């Protein structure tokens, strides 16, 4: 019977703590790519633009997401980027061939403008340096320009550009995807490890307060994964604070059950990187723990074909403009769950990207800004997923798909916010036909009751949102109630859910 309910169980206990969640796990990414910057966050001619040219309609949506950190300026683009092109009087800035995406970069936005934008958006900057075509010198100069108070060549140059106070950017990426053959200045693991560790040394001499991210593999399918991690960490383990992970998924074969299980691949990826870090820790007899920065993650495949048609060397063409479906939003929800279940090691994560380019926020040049389907799980998890991640003990029926076995229909994460006396359950029901009725033991949360049960559901897996047409949006009519220490919830077939409980006054 199609509507018959499938049953699952969870035990949630205050004491089953994984870790305090680092809010930066809800970070994002803006690259000089396509219309992310030009026509995305920056469009001086737009009716909502402020005096700096920043679109306020986009700014409002970014603020709604409460994004704590944004990686910048790339991405592949950073590997051939001269940061000096993007500072100083705008009229003097050179137009350059941008090699990664084969477009023309006007440099009308650069480091200082992005810092201004980030400040206005209540977010921090995570700055990437060019270790493709450049190296130690450009990195230390940029850091001096950004973070040194004054009295030196580069810091005084910043002041002369109108920025009296240092930007104090704390988190820096030592290059981007340096294992990738597509990367300008690709390196072997040895070459990268040596360059990254010497660059880190110089950067720490300029500013000992910074945090550094060493480049991991471009994704878990790279032929050199996880040897790249092991070999590069031999050099960078003691100088870096994080190692990066990047991963994008797609449903190219149209197999939804298999697609929804892809967060299990992310789970394996995280586990392997942790194991590799800990192996190097043991080998080095180190006291230090390496943390993970999952600084590019999302769904990316819809726009692959149309991108092949883009005329090279144009300015801000519509590249990587994936229009996300309802099923994409469910996988995004599960990817967030996966990272929260690893919040003891995953301290930074960046949904790639933020505006127009594989993004939760889309814009029309000169027109509207709107929310893609994936906006919603990102929004709810970012806004309500603050506190301590709890380890839910889940017992769920499972299925097998093309690439995965024992896929639990119920995928979840749980967050307890002690200060707000709030317990939040995020859950995906991967069952395409049947609702999941879940008995959740919440006896350790005495006096807590349901405040809301938000559901993202849709009959059409391929439903999308377009400008002025929001076909996929959540409702708050989910079925959940607490009785005698037991939360009973029904997660509709093929849905993403958030249940929020609070202690009754
Ligand atoms: O986010 C799009 C691209 O994906 C980034 O530039 C690169 O780092 C990754 O391959």
From TrEMBL:
Domain Alpha-L-arabinofuranosidase C-terminal intervals: 295-495
Catalytic reactions of this protein: Hydrolysis of terminal non-reducing alpha-L-arabinofuranoside residues in alpha-L-arabinosides
InterPro entries from the UniProt entry: Alpha-L-AF_C, ASD1_cat, GH, Glyco_hydro_b
GO biological process, one term: L-arabinose metabolic process
Gene3D superfamilies linked: Glycosidases, Golgi alpha-mannosidase II
EC numbers, comma separated: 3.2.1.55
Pathway assigned in UniProt: Glycan metabolism
Keyword Hydrolase: yes
Record's keyword terms, sorted: Carbohydrate metabolism, Glycosidase, Hydrolase
GO molecular function, one term: alpha-L-arabinofuranosidase activity
Family assignment from sequence similarity: Belongs to the glycosyl hydrolase 51 family.
UniProt-listed PANTHER family: ALPHA-L-ARABINOFURANOSIDASE C, ALPHA-L-ARABINOFURANOSIDASE C-RELATED
Record note on quaternary structure: Homohexamer; trimer of dimers.
The protein's name in its UniProt record: non-reducing end alpha-L-arabinofuranosidase
Organism: Gracilibacillus thailandensis
Phylogenetic lineage: Bacteria, Bacillati, Bacillota, Bacilli, Bacillales
């Amino acid at each position: 019977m199609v509507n018959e309910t499938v049953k699952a169980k969870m035990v949630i206990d205050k004491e089953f703590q994984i870790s305090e969640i680092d809010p930066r796990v809800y970070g994002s990414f803006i690259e000089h790519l396509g219309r992310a910057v030009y026509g995305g966050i920056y469009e001086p001619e737009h009716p909502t633009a402020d005096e700096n040219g920043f679109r306020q309609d986009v700014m409002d949506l970014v603020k709604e997401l409460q994004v704590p950190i944004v990686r910048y300026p790339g991405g592949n683009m950073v590997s051939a980027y001269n940061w000096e092109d993007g500072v100083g009087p705008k009229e003097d800035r050179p137009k350059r061939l941008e090699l990664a995406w084969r477009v023309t970069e006007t440099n009308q936005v650069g480091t200082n403008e992005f810092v201004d934008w980030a400040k206005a958006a209540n977010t921090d900057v995570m700055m990437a340096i060019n270790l493709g075509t450049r190296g130690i010198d450009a990195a230390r100069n940029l850091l001096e320009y950004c973070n040194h108070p004054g009295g030196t060549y580069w810091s005084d140059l910043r002041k002369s550009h109108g920025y009296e106070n240092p930007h104090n950017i704390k988190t820096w990426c030592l290059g981007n995807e340096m294992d990738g053959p597509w990367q300008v200045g690709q390196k072997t693991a040895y070459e990268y490890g040596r360059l990254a560790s010497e660059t880190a040394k110089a950067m720490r001499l300029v500013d000992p307060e910074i945090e550094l991210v060493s480049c991991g593999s471009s994704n878990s399918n790279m032929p050199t994964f996880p040897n790249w991690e092991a070999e590069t960490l031999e050099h960078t383990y003691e100088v870096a604070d994080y190692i990066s992970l990047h991963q994008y998924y797609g449903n190219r074969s149209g197999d939804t059950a298999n697609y929804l299980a892809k967060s299990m691949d992310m789970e394996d990826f995280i586990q392997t990187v942790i194991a590799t870090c800990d192996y190097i820790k043991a080998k080095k007899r180190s006291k230090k723990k390496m943390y993970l920065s999952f600084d590019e993650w999302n769904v990316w495949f819809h726009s692959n074909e149309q991108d092949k048609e883009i005329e090279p060397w144009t300015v801000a063409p519509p590249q990587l403009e994936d229009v996300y479906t309802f099923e994409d939003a469910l996988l995004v929800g599960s990817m967030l769950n996966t990272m929260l279940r690893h919040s003891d090691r995953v301290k930074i994560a960046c949904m790639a990207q933020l505006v127009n380019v594989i993004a939760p926020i889309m814009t029309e040049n000169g027109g509207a800004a709107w929310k893609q389907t994936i906006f919603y799980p990102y929004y709810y998890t970012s806004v309500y997923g603050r506190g301590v991640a709890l380890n839910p003990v889940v017992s769920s029926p499972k299925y097998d798909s093309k690439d995965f076995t024992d896929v639990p229909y119920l995928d979840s994460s749980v967050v307890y916010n002690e200060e707000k006396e709030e317990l939040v359950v995020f859950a995906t029901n991967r069952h395409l036909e049947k609702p999941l009725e879940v008995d959740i033991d919440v006896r350790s949360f005495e006096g807590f009751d349901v405040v809301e049960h938000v559901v993202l559901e849709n009959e059409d897996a391929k439903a999308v949102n377009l400008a002025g047409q929001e076909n996929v949006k959540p409702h708050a009519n989910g079925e959940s109630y607490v009785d005698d220490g037991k939360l009973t919830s029904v997660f509709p077939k093929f849905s993403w859910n958030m249940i929020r409980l609070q202690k009754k006054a």
